[in-house]
Structures are given as C-alpha cells and as structure tokens.
Design brief:
The complex is a heterodimer of chains A (156) and B (406).
Chain A lengths: L1 E8 L6 H4 L10 H6 L16 E4 L12 H8 L4 E4 L4 H10 L3 E3 L9 E5 L4 E4 L2 E4 L5 H9 L2 H8 L1
Parallel strand pairs in A: 1-2, 2-3, 3-4
Antiparallel strand pairs in A: 1-5, 5-6, 6-7
Helix pairs in contact in A: 3-4, 5-6
Chain B lengths: L3 H6 L6 E5 L2 E5 L3 H10 L11 E4 L9 H17 L2 E3 L6 H5 L9 E4 L13 E4 L2 H10 L1 E5 L3 E7 L8 H12 L8 E5 L8 H9 L8 E4 L3 H8 L17 E6 L6 E3 L7 E3 H4 L6 E5 H4 L2 H11 L7 E5 L3 H9 L2 H7 L3 E2 L20 E4 L14 E4 L2 H10 L12
Parallel strand pairs in B: 2-3, 2-5, 3-4, 5-6, 8-9, 8-11, 9-10, 14-15, 14-17, 15-16, 17-18
Antiparallel strand pairs in B: 1-7, 12-13
Classes of the chains: A alpha/beta (156), B alpha/beta (406).
Chain lengths: 156, 406
C-alpha cells in the first residue's frame, strides 16, 4: 500500500478536540465532521485536505477516544497521516477505519509532495526519508481490507 | 516476575496478546458509532451481554432533538441486545463501574479515554474507539500490545494542602502529555496505602493525560475494604520484583497545590503562581473529582460562606448525590450559592450545562483543559477540589491551606 499527496503541516500534541470539536459530535453525518475538521486550529484547513498527507508533530490525536477525529480526516480526503508518534487510541482508531498512518519523524514543508509506503514502512519528502516502526501483520490486513468493519465482514 | 499489566494480559511487554474482555462499555457519545459499526459488521448478538454496558452520561439529558433521537436509537438497541443500560442521571460510566462492579485482575475496555480510571482496582482498564468496541461486543475479546510500565513511586503521606489531584497533576507535569504513550503506569511505594479509593481513582483517571494506556494500583486492604462496602469479595495482589521502563518519585508531604493552565494538562505550576487570577466559573465534578469525598471536602470549605462566582457542582453518580443529600452536603452547597446538577459528565466536554463564553475562565476539577473544550474562546484551569473551593469563595485563584483538605 503506497500513495502520495501534498503535505499539510500541523503541530505536536494535536488533541482530538482540535481535530473535531465536541460541539459537532452529536450527529452521524460524516460530511459535517469533514467540513469542520481542524476548525479551531485553522478554519480554512478543511478545504485543503483532499488528497493531502498530514504531517503532524509528536503525540498526534491525543485526548478523547472520539473516532470522529479519524473519520473526519478520512472523509475530508486525507490520504495518510505521518507523525513521529501517535496517541494510542487515535492510532487504533485510524487503522480501524482504514486511514493509513506512518509513524516516523519527517520535516514538513507545506504543499510539497509526500510519498509513503505502508508495507515497507516509510515516508519521504524532498528526498528525505523516514523509516517507521512496522505495523503488525494484523494491522496491515485491517488497513488492506479498508478498516475493521470490512475486515470483519470478509472473515464471516 | 512481571508487572501487573503483564500478569493480567498474560504476556511480556512488547508482545501482542488476544484477551477476553470482562467489562466492555460505551456511552451516549461513543455508543452511536459503536452501534453503527456493530450493525455494519453484520453482527446480530452481543457475545457477552452480561459484561456489556451502555451508559448515558455525556449529554444527559439530551440537549436538543438530534441528540435525543440518537439516544432513542441507542436505548432501543440496548434493550434489544440485552445490555446493561444506565439511564440519564445515573452517573458517569467510570464512577458507576467503580461502585461495586469492577474487580481486581479484570480486563476492562471502554469506548472512552478515561476508562483507565478503573485501574485503581488493580484491573487492566483502557480506552478504545467505537469500531474497536463494536468488535469487542461481537467477539467478547480484543488484541493488545502488552505495554511497558513506568513506576510512579509515592513516598510518605500528604501533610500539606495537596491531595490526590495535585499528585496526578504532578506526575503529568513530570511525564509530559505523551511521556507515557503506549505505556502503563503503576502506582507503588509506601505512600500508596494512605490514599483512599477516591484518590486512587483520581490518580488512575489522569493516566491518559500523560498518554498512558492504563494506570494501575495493586489491590490491597484499601481496595478490599472499599469493595466489601458494596458486598463484593476481592483478592489482594502482591507486587513482584519486575522491570520498569522508568520511575518517577513523588514526595507527598512536600507536594504543593498545583494548577494546569494554557490549554495543556502538563503546563502545571504551583497554585500560588496564579493566585489572584479572576474566575468566571468554578466547576466541581467529573470522573476525576465528582465523588462523595470531593463534595464533602467542598462542603466543609464552603460551609457558612458564599461563593463569589458561579459554581457548578455535578455529582459523579446518583449514589453520590443521594449520599451527599443524606449527609447535608447538598444543603450546604446550595446554601453557599452553588448550583448542583444532574449526575453525569456535566460541562466537562463543553456540550451542555455550563459552557464558557468567549474570554471566560473556568477553574475546573476535571482532567482536560484543551483549547475551546468547554466553549469557544474559554480557558480552563485544572485544580484540586480544595483549590476550587477556596477560589470559589474569593472569585479568583486562591491557594488552599492544609486545614482545607482535612
């Protein structure tokens, strides 16, 4: 599984309240979450996420267990998220909904092309490549299926 | 020779294990997506309804039609699948599970990040997202990477104006917001025995604010005594020599009252450094500090006084509210000018019952002060109940004295 996209840089300790604010949670409308993703950080950011690769600082997705944070990013069209470390619940949520993650430190340049490969576990930008801790075979399987729901359905 | 997490999960740190989940739960916030994922998986029956719970605590009662409709769907689902269902006003999921349900050694998984609260019983308790929870409802189990453990060694007893919440803020400051990511915390040392169950729940609750997967106390006389009060028999857990990834030592007698500010739980300083900061709201409650001991402490501080700032008190459960009413605590709080709300999460997550206006400052006993969490443009300061109580009287951040925490 590999892909590429234009880099969008966000800072470290990006909590799930800032990814999708609590005031938007009481709905099942995924497009609404996508429209308001990162609103409290930068209201214009949501419009730039189609096909983008987010490069975040450490502890990406800390805070609440709200899966809407990962869903909002995926629905907004984010191809992958790259960060030196992820908060563990966000990490599991992203895999479970089929949002690719690469856990390695990469210097971010807004708008530059980022390439990534999940099986080999790397991401690169402007010739700089970072190597990730490999995903477990089960996580890769879930990602390949498109998330835990299709993975589960296929297994039945 | 293993850490408590390794013993409960049955594997060495770093290994992947499949475990049976003893208690699995979601709430009105995460339950909506859990139900959706469960149905999308094509599942019908919940594997272990006896150990499966759905709590209405986050926006309870509902604040508008959309919320009410989503909650109605969840109610029917819970009924149809035979889950334990907890209605609005019963209390916060973590508190209700701490009232004679969770036992030492159990694996507890909740679709809520503060599930780590239940580690206070010597259970392995951790949070997951909705889709993970749906798979647990369907299969009765899940997978974990067994975490390495950081020891939080507690020395001595509180003698000053600090309480368990200050201890929690102290270790979060020490570790930082991601200092324990992928790891578990274990609270050990001679200081543990002097901390009652209410304080242990506070300490375990904040583990996730340092990124931890779980925060465990070994079950001891305090644990068995507390559970006996609920008619539950529990066993003790002896600590084995084991390897910790690192260790943080906290000297309880020397701990000052602490406060977190500027939208980071780890931006912690002494309350004295912020004394005089004007407040617009004080909030006492949540899964961190909404227990009977907390309300009792607040009532002692406010007895015969009057609050100078709007002060919202939300008991963590109906049982807490009933007992606080019986003991005259509620009357004291109302007499001091507080409002007492419906048991549940209250305004902690900024959805209802006390959201902040732009530029307003709230001193809260909760666990998170993220940007805009309690309302766009509002700032949240986090402190102990004693600090919140004395600050409510002055209408500004105030340092508590040792007698305020007696």
């Amino acid at each position: 599984m590999f892909g590429e996209g234009k880099a969008v840089c966000v800072g470290k300790d990006m909590d799930t309240d800032r990814i999708i604010a609590g005031r938007y949670l009481r709905t099942k409308d995924r497009n609404l979450w996508a429209a308001h993703v990162f609103e409290d950080l930068d209201p214009k950011l949501a419009g730039r996420l189609k096909g983008a690769v987010i490069i975040a600082g450490s502890n990406m997705g800390c805070g609440s267990s709200r899966e809407q944070a990962a869903i909002a990013l995926k629905t907004a069209g984010v191809a992958a998220v790259i960060a030196p470390s992820f908060a563990r619940i966000f990490f599991r949520n992203a895999i479970n909904i089929g949002l690719p993650l690469v856990e390695c430190p990469l210097s971010c340049k807004d708008g530059a092309v980022v390439r990534f490969n999940l099986e080999e576990g790397w991401a690169e930008l402007d010739g700089e490549r970072c190597m990730a801790r490999p995903l477990s075979p089960k996580m890769l399987e879930i990602l390949r299926a498109g998330g835990l729901v299709p993975y589960w359905r296929n297994r039945r | 020779m293993a850490t408590l997490s390794e013993r409960i999960l049955g594997g060495p740190a770093g290994s992947y294990v499949d475990v049976k989940v003893d208690r699995a739960f979601a709430h009105d916030g995460t339950g909506v997506l859990t139900r959706e994922a469960f149905c999308d998986m094509g599942c019908d029956g919940v594997k272990n309804p006896e150990g499966t719970y759905l709590f209405f605590d986050h926006i309870a009662p509902a604040n508008n039609t959309t919320t009410a409709t989503l909650q109605a769907e969840l109610r029917s689902f819970a009924r149809a699948k035979g889950l334990h269902f907890s209605e609005i006003g019963q209390g916060i999921c973590h508190q209700l599970l701490a009232e004679g349900i969770v036992l030492p050694g159990e694996v507890v998984v909740g679709a809520d990040s503060h599930t780590c609260t239940l580690g206070a019983f010597g259970a392995f308790a951790t949070g997951v997202g909705a889709t993970d929870m749906a798979a647990i409802w369907a299969s009765g189990g899940t997978w974990f990477r067994v975490p390495e453990t950081i020891a939080i060694r507690l020395k001595g007893r509180f003698t000053g104006a600090a309480e368990a919440k200050d201890l929690a803020l102290a270790y979060v400051r020490e570790l930082g917001m991601d200092g324990a990511n992928y790891r578990a915390l274990e609270f050990i040392g001679d200081g543990v025995e002097g901390i009652p169950m209410s304080g242990r729940l506070t300490c375990s609750n904040m583990s996730v604010e340092a990124g931890a997967k779980a925060g465990l106390f070994y079950s001891d006389g305090v644990t068995t005594g507390y559970l006996a009060g609920f008619g539950m028999e529990a066993s003790r857990q002896e600590q084995e020599p084991c390897e910790y990834a690192s260790e943080v030592e906290i000297d309880l007698p020397r701990l000052p009252p602490l406060i977190a500010s500027h939208h980071r739980v780890d931006r912690v300083q002494e309350v004295a450094a912020m004394a005089g900061t004007p407040l617009d709201e004080v909030f006492v409650g949540t899964c961190t500090n909404g227990r009977l001991e907390d309300l009792e402490r607040l009532a002692r501080i406010l007895n015969g006084k009057e609050v100078r700032v709007r002060t919202i008190v939300v008991p963590a459960s109906r049982r807490v509210l009933v007992e606080a009413t019986r003991r005259g605590i509620v009357e004291t709080l109302l007499g001091a000018g507080c409002v007492v709300g419906i048991p549940g999460c209250g305004p902690c997550l900024g959805a209802h019952m006390g959201v902040l206006g732009e530029g307003e400052v709230c001193l809260s006993t909760a666990n998170r002060n993220f940007t805009n969490r309690m309302g766009v443009g509002g700032e949240i300061l986090l402190s102990s109940v004693a600090t919140a109580g004395v600050s409510a009287i002055r209408g500004e951040v105030t340092v508590p004295e040792a007698e305020d925490v007696r």
